[in-house]
Amino acid sequence: MPRRPSATPWPALLVPAKAVNLYLAYAVVTTTPGGAWDENTLTGIETACSLLLLTAALTESLNYAALRHRALPHRWLILATCLPTVACVRWGRIVQRYPG
């Protein structure tokens, strides 16, 4: 089925949103606390995880809107579904490794 041209520039909306998601995912994965006593870093990681989940949900809703209008291919959903998984896994590991 041919794609019809869309009036909304979906890539112009989605590329900056995905860049924010990737930045948050990088911060979530690369930030390491100094130990169980490093409460500020642990809180920062948990905050970055929650922000990543929020921005990924917003980006995914934009993806679905673009797919509904048949403006983008389905491969645009790959990143939007992988990044919340990264956030959940990291948040779970932080909670298990540093309880309290």
From TrEMBL:
Top-rank taxon, per record: Bacteria
Listed name of the protein: Uncharacterized protein
Organism annotation: Streptomyces uncialis
